[in-house]
Write a structure and sequence with these properties.
The chain has helices at residues 107-119, 136-152, 167-174, 189-196, 248-251, 256-259, 279-285, 291-301, 305-310, 315-325; strands spanning 2-8, 13-17, 22-27, 47-53, 60-66, 72-76, 84-89, 93-98, 123-128, 155-158, 178-182, 222-226, 230-234. The protein is of the alpha/beta class and 326 residues long. The strands form three sheets. The protein has a six-stranded mixed beta sheet, sandwiched between helices. Strands 1-2-3-5-4 form a five-stranded mixed barrel. A two-stranded antiparallel ribbon has the order 6-7. α1 packs across α8. The longest helix has 17 residues, at 136-152. The radius of gyration is 21 Å and the shape is globular. The termini are far apart. The relative contact order is 0.13.
Protein backbone atom coordinates (compact mmCIF):
# COMPACT_ATOMS: atom_id res chain seq x y z
CA UNK A 1 0.00 0.00 0.00
CA UNK A 2 1.07 3.59 -0.63
CA UNK A 3 0.33 6.48 1.68
CA UNK A 4 1.28 9.94 2.93
CA UNK A 5 2.95 10.49 6.31
CA UNK A 6 0.78 12.83 8.41
CA UNK A 7 2.57 12.59 11.75
CA UNK A 8 5.95 11.42 13.03
CA UNK A 9 6.64 10.81 16.71
CA UNK A 10 10.08 9.30 16.22
CA UNK A 11 9.09 5.66 16.54
CA UNK A 12 5.56 5.62 15.09
CA UNK A 13 4.30 7.24 11.90
CA UNK A 14 0.68 8.03 11.09
CA UNK A 15 0.15 7.25 7.42
CA UNK A 16 -2.93 8.07 5.35
CA UNK A 17 -3.49 5.42 2.70
CA UNK A 18 -4.92 6.09 -0.74
CA UNK A 19 -8.37 5.00 0.52
CA UNK A 20 -8.18 7.78 3.17
CA UNK A 21 -7.71 5.30 6.04
CA UNK A 22 -5.10 6.17 8.67
CA UNK A 23 -2.66 3.53 9.89
CA UNK A 24 -0.01 3.62 12.61
CA UNK A 25 3.25 2.36 11.12
CA UNK A 26 6.80 1.58 12.15
CA UNK A 27 9.85 1.47 9.91
CA UNK A 28 12.18 -1.39 9.07
CA UNK A 29 15.55 -1.06 10.76
CA UNK A 30 17.39 -0.85 7.47
CA UNK A 31 16.36 2.80 7.02
CA UNK A 32 18.64 3.68 9.87
CA UNK A 33 21.54 1.87 8.20
CA UNK A 34 21.49 3.58 4.80
CA UNK A 35 23.87 6.36 5.73
CA UNK A 36 21.05 8.80 6.41
CA UNK A 37 22.53 11.28 8.86
CA UNK A 38 19.13 12.59 9.81
CA UNK A 39 17.67 12.11 13.27
CA UNK A 40 14.40 11.23 11.49
CA UNK A 41 14.73 9.07 8.36
CA UNK A 42 11.04 9.60 7.59
CA UNK A 43 9.38 13.02 7.77
CA UNK A 44 5.86 14.39 7.60
CA UNK A 45 4.98 14.84 3.93
CA UNK A 46 6.86 11.74 2.77
CA UNK A 47 5.15 9.35 0.37
CA UNK A 48 5.81 5.79 1.54
CA UNK A 49 4.98 2.19 0.74
CA UNK A 50 3.92 0.00 3.65
CA UNK A 51 2.61 -3.45 4.46
CA UNK A 52 -0.14 -4.19 6.96
CA UNK A 53 0.31 -6.57 9.86
CA UNK A 54 -3.07 -7.87 10.98
CA UNK A 55 -1.80 -10.65 13.21
CA UNK A 56 -2.67 -8.68 16.37
CA UNK A 57 -5.89 -6.98 17.45
CA UNK A 58 -4.61 -3.57 16.31
CA UNK A 59 -3.83 -3.38 12.61
CA UNK A 60 -0.48 -1.65 12.16
CA UNK A 61 1.88 -1.23 9.24
CA UNK A 62 5.55 -1.53 8.40
CA UNK A 63 7.06 1.09 6.08
CA UNK A 64 9.48 -0.48 3.60
CA UNK A 65 10.02 2.23 0.96
CA UNK A 66 10.32 6.01 0.93
CA UNK A 67 9.51 7.63 -2.42
CA UNK A 68 11.89 10.28 -3.74
CA UNK A 69 11.26 13.72 -2.21
CA UNK A 70 10.76 16.75 -4.45
CA UNK A 71 12.10 18.92 -1.62
CA UNK A 72 12.37 19.21 2.14
CA UNK A 73 13.20 21.70 4.87
CA UNK A 74 16.18 20.62 6.95
CA UNK A 75 18.19 22.10 9.79
CA UNK A 76 21.00 21.00 12.07
CA UNK A 77 19.93 18.89 15.00
CA UNK A 78 20.45 21.08 18.05
CA UNK A 79 21.57 18.22 20.28
CA UNK A 80 23.50 16.15 17.75
CA UNK A 81 25.83 18.49 15.90
CA UNK A 82 26.76 16.08 13.10
CA UNK A 83 23.19 15.15 12.33
CA UNK A 84 20.34 16.94 10.61
CA UNK A 85 16.64 17.09 11.30
CA UNK A 86 14.19 17.03 8.39
CA UNK A 87 11.28 19.22 9.46
CA UNK A 88 8.95 18.26 6.59
CA UNK A 89 9.07 17.19 2.95
CA UNK A 90 7.25 17.63 -0.37
CA UNK A 91 6.13 21.17 0.49
CA UNK A 92 4.58 23.56 -2.04
CA UNK A 93 4.87 26.72 0.05
CA UNK A 94 6.27 27.55 3.49
CA UNK A 95 5.01 30.36 5.71
CA UNK A 96 7.48 31.72 8.25
CA UNK A 97 5.57 33.32 11.10
CA UNK A 98 7.31 36.40 12.51
CA UNK A 99 6.48 38.36 15.65
CA UNK A 100 8.10 41.64 16.64
CA UNK A 101 8.44 41.26 20.38
CA UNK A 102 6.25 38.49 21.78
CA UNK A 103 8.53 36.64 21.20
CA UNK A 104 11.03 38.62 19.07
CA UNK A 105 12.05 37.10 15.73
CA UNK A 106 15.51 38.23 14.66
CA UNK A 107 16.59 39.00 11.12
CA UNK A 108 19.33 36.38 11.50
CA UNK A 109 16.72 33.68 12.12
CA UNK A 110 14.56 34.90 9.23
CA UNK A 111 17.53 34.92 6.86
CA UNK A 112 18.75 31.45 7.85
CA UNK A 113 15.28 30.08 7.20
CA UNK A 114 14.99 31.83 3.83
CA UNK A 115 18.42 30.59 2.74
CA UNK A 116 17.35 27.01 3.46
CA UNK A 117 14.07 27.48 1.57
CA UNK A 118 15.96 28.95 -1.41
CA UNK A 119 18.47 26.10 -1.38
CA UNK A 120 15.70 23.49 -1.59
CA UNK A 121 13.56 25.41 -4.08
CA UNK A 122 10.58 26.06 -1.79
CA UNK A 123 8.55 29.26 -2.09
CA UNK A 124 8.69 31.14 1.21
CA UNK A 125 6.23 33.76 2.45
CA UNK A 126 6.79 35.94 5.52
CA UNK A 127 3.74 36.21 7.77
CA UNK A 128 3.92 39.05 10.28
CA UNK A 129 1.56 37.81 12.98
CA UNK A 130 -0.10 39.45 16.02
CA UNK A 131 -0.42 42.84 14.33
CA UNK A 132 -3.31 43.55 16.73
CA UNK A 133 -0.75 43.83 19.57
CA UNK A 134 1.43 46.48 17.91
CA UNK A 135 2.15 49.89 19.34
CA UNK A 136 3.57 52.58 17.03
CA UNK A 137 7.22 51.56 17.45
CA UNK A 138 6.43 47.90 16.80
CA UNK A 139 4.40 48.80 13.72
CA UNK A 140 7.30 50.87 12.39
CA UNK A 141 9.71 47.98 12.92
CA UNK A 142 7.36 45.52 11.24
CA UNK A 143 6.87 47.79 8.24
CA UNK A 144 10.62 48.32 7.99
CA UNK A 145 11.20 44.55 7.89
CA UNK A 146 8.38 44.15 5.38
CA UNK A 147 10.02 46.79 3.18
CA UNK A 148 13.40 45.00 3.29
CA UNK A 149 12.00 41.61 2.27
CA UNK A 150 9.44 42.92 -0.23
CA UNK A 151 12.25 44.76 -2.04
CA UNK A 152 14.13 41.46 -2.35
CA UNK A 153 11.03 39.83 -3.83
CA UNK A 154 9.51 37.92 -0.90
CA UNK A 155 5.76 38.02 -0.41
CA UNK A 156 4.76 39.40 2.99
CA UNK A 157 1.44 39.16 4.82
CA UNK A 158 0.22 41.10 7.86
CA UNK A 159 -2.00 38.86 9.95
CA UNK A 160 -3.96 38.82 13.19
CA UNK A 161 -5.38 35.41 14.05
CA UNK A 162 -7.31 37.01 16.92
CA UNK A 163 -8.99 39.67 14.79
CA UNK A 164 -9.09 37.47 11.66
CA UNK A 165 -7.11 40.03 9.65
CA UNK A 166 -5.25 38.69 6.62
CA UNK A 167 -6.87 35.26 6.96
CA UNK A 168 -8.66 35.41 3.58
CA UNK A 169 -5.41 36.30 1.78
CA UNK A 170 -3.61 33.49 3.57
CA UNK A 171 -6.30 30.96 2.62
CA UNK A 172 -6.06 32.03 -1.03
CA UNK A 173 -2.30 31.37 -1.05
CA UNK A 174 -2.75 27.97 0.60
CA UNK A 175 -5.60 26.61 -1.55
CA UNK A 176 -4.65 23.53 -3.56
CA UNK A 177 -1.24 23.29 -1.90
CA UNK A 178 0.70 21.55 0.86
CA UNK A 179 1.76 24.38 3.17
CA UNK A 180 4.00 24.46 6.19
CA UNK A 181 3.92 26.89 9.11
CA UNK A 182 7.20 27.47 10.90
CA UNK A 183 8.74 29.90 13.37
CA UNK A 184 9.75 30.26 17.00
CA UNK A 185 7.62 28.84 19.81
CA UNK A 186 4.96 31.37 20.71
CA UNK A 187 4.61 33.12 17.34
CA UNK A 188 1.06 31.80 17.04
CA UNK A 189 1.29 28.91 14.57
CA UNK A 190 -1.37 26.77 16.24
CA UNK A 191 -3.61 29.80 16.91
CA UNK A 192 -3.39 30.70 13.23
CA UNK A 193 -4.25 27.14 12.14
CA UNK A 194 -7.29 27.34 14.44
CA UNK A 195 -8.30 30.63 12.82
CA UNK A 196 -8.10 28.96 9.41
CA UNK A 197 -9.92 25.81 10.56
CA UNK A 198 -11.64 26.29 13.95
CA UNK A 199 -12.82 22.64 14.06
CA UNK A 200 -9.21 21.47 14.57
CA UNK A 201 -9.05 23.20 17.96
CA UNK A 202 -5.27 22.82 18.33
CA UNK A 203 -3.77 23.45 21.76
CA UNK A 204 -2.22 26.86 22.37
CA UNK A 205 -0.23 28.39 25.22
CA UNK A 206 0.58 31.88 26.41
CA UNK A 207 3.98 33.54 26.16
CA UNK A 208 6.16 33.20 29.25
CA UNK A 209 6.28 36.68 30.77
CA UNK A 210 9.60 35.98 32.43
CA UNK A 211 11.54 35.08 29.31
CA UNK A 212 9.30 36.54 26.59
CA UNK A 213 9.75 33.22 24.78
CA UNK A 214 7.03 30.92 23.61
CA UNK A 215 6.27 27.62 25.23
CA UNK A 216 6.21 24.52 23.06
CA UNK A 217 2.66 23.41 22.31
CA UNK A 218 3.24 21.39 19.14
CA UNK A 219 5.52 18.50 20.09
CA UNK A 220 5.71 16.80 16.70
CA UNK A 221 5.20 17.98 13.14
CA UNK A 222 1.73 17.04 11.94
CA UNK A 223 -0.23 17.46 8.72
CA UNK A 224 -3.90 18.40 8.66
CA UNK A 225 -6.47 18.33 5.86
CA UNK A 226 -8.31 21.65 5.67
CA UNK A 227 -11.84 22.22 4.40
CA UNK A 228 -10.77 24.63 1.64
CA UNK A 229 -8.73 22.13 -0.41
CA UNK A 230 -5.45 22.61 1.41
CA UNK A 231 -3.05 20.69 3.60
CA UNK A 232 -1.10 22.35 6.43
CA UNK A 233 1.93 21.01 8.26
CA UNK A 234 2.10 22.49 11.76
CA UNK A 235 5.62 22.22 13.19
CA UNK A 236 7.16 22.49 16.66
CA UNK A 237 8.62 25.88 17.52
CA UNK A 238 12.21 26.26 16.35
CA UNK A 239 14.63 27.99 18.70
CA UNK A 240 17.53 28.24 16.26
CA UNK A 241 18.12 27.34 12.65
CA UNK A 242 21.49 25.79 11.78
CA UNK A 243 22.44 25.77 8.10
CA UNK A 244 23.26 22.36 6.64
CA UNK A 245 25.77 21.28 3.98
CA UNK A 246 26.48 24.52 2.13
CA UNK A 247 29.80 25.39 0.57
CA UNK A 248 30.99 28.97 1.27
CA UNK A 249 30.97 29.77 -2.44
CA UNK A 250 27.27 28.90 -2.85
CA UNK A 251 25.78 30.65 0.20
CA UNK A 252 25.43 34.03 -1.54
CA UNK A 253 23.44 32.35 -4.33
CA UNK A 254 20.61 31.87 -1.81
CA UNK A 255 20.45 35.60 -1.08
CA UNK A 256 18.50 36.71 -4.21
CA UNK A 257 19.70 40.32 -4.05
CA UNK A 258 23.33 39.11 -3.87
CA UNK A 259 22.83 36.60 -6.68
CA UNK A 260 21.58 39.33 -9.02
CA UNK A 261 24.87 41.22 -8.61
CA UNK A 262 27.19 38.23 -8.78
CA UNK A 263 28.11 38.68 -12.43
CA UNK A 264 29.23 42.25 -11.75
CA UNK A 265 31.89 41.20 -9.24
CA UNK A 266 35.47 41.24 -10.58
CA UNK A 267 36.19 37.70 -9.36
CA UNK A 268 34.06 34.68 -10.21
CA UNK A 269 34.62 33.20 -6.76
CA UNK A 270 33.97 36.46 -4.89
CA UNK A 271 32.80 35.87 -1.31
CA UNK A 272 31.79 39.54 -0.95
CA UNK A 273 34.10 40.10 2.00
CA UNK A 274 37.55 41.60 1.33
CA UNK A 275 37.74 41.23 -2.45
CA UNK A 276 38.22 44.39 -4.56
CA UNK A 277 35.56 45.55 -7.04
CA UNK A 278 32.79 43.58 -5.32
CA UNK A 279 29.33 44.54 -6.59
CA UNK A 280 27.65 43.36 -3.38
CA UNK A 281 29.88 45.52 -1.15
CA UNK A 282 29.32 48.46 -3.51
CA UNK A 283 25.53 48.00 -3.26
CA UNK A 284 25.88 47.74 0.52
CA UNK A 285 27.75 51.05 0.68
CA UNK A 286 25.01 52.63 -1.44
CA UNK A 287 22.25 51.29 0.89
CA UNK A 288 20.85 49.12 -1.89
CA UNK A 289 21.31 46.03 0.27
CA UNK A 290 20.15 45.85 3.89
CA UNK A 291 22.95 45.68 6.45
CA UNK A 292 20.98 43.12 8.45
CA UNK A 293 21.01 40.78 5.43
CA UNK A 294 24.75 41.22 4.91
CA UNK A 295 25.31 40.63 8.62
CA UNK A 296 23.32 37.37 8.40
CA UNK A 297 25.33 36.34 5.34
CA UNK A 298 28.65 36.85 7.16
CA UNK A 299 27.45 34.79 10.13
CA UNK A 300 26.43 31.91 7.90
CA UNK A 301 29.66 32.20 5.90
CA UNK A 302 31.74 32.11 9.05
CA UNK A 303 29.89 29.04 10.30
CA UNK A 304 28.55 30.77 13.37
CA UNK A 305 26.72 27.66 14.47
CA UNK A 306 26.90 28.21 18.19
CA UNK A 307 25.23 31.58 17.90
CA UNK A 308 22.05 30.27 16.31
CA UNK A 309 21.26 27.99 19.20
CA UNK A 310 22.55 29.84 22.25
CA UNK A 311 21.32 33.41 22.43
CA UNK A 312 19.06 34.12 19.51
CA UNK A 313 17.03 36.82 21.15
CA UNK A 314 19.54 39.33 22.50
CA UNK A 315 22.89 39.57 20.69
CA UNK A 316 21.26 39.31 17.29
CA UNK A 317 18.70 41.95 18.04
CA UNK A 318 21.37 44.37 19.29
CA UNK A 319 23.47 43.77 16.18
CA UNK A 320 20.44 44.29 13.94
CA UNK A 321 19.56 47.53 15.72
CA UNK A 322 23.14 48.80 15.42
CA UNK A 323 23.28 48.15 11.67
CA UNK A 324 20.03 50.01 11.17
CA UNK A 325 21.38 53.05 13.02
CA UNK A 326 24.57 53.17 10.97
Amino acid sequence: MTGLVYKSTGSWYTVKAEDNTFYECRIKGKFRMKGIKSTNPIAVGDVVDFELDDTSDDITGTINTIHDRKNYIVRKSVNLSKQTHIIASNIDIVFLLITINNPPTTTSFIDRFLVTAEAYGIEAVLVFNKIDTFDEAMRDEQLYLQYIYSEIGYKCLRVSAVEKKGIAELKAMMTGKVSMFSGHSGVGKSTLVNALEPSLNLKTKHISEQSKQGQHTTTFAEMYDLSFDAKIIDTPGIKGFGIVDMEPSEISDYFPEFFKLKEQCKFNNCLHKEEPHCAVKKALDEDKIAWSRYNSYLKILEGDDEHYRSDIYNDDRIASDETRKS
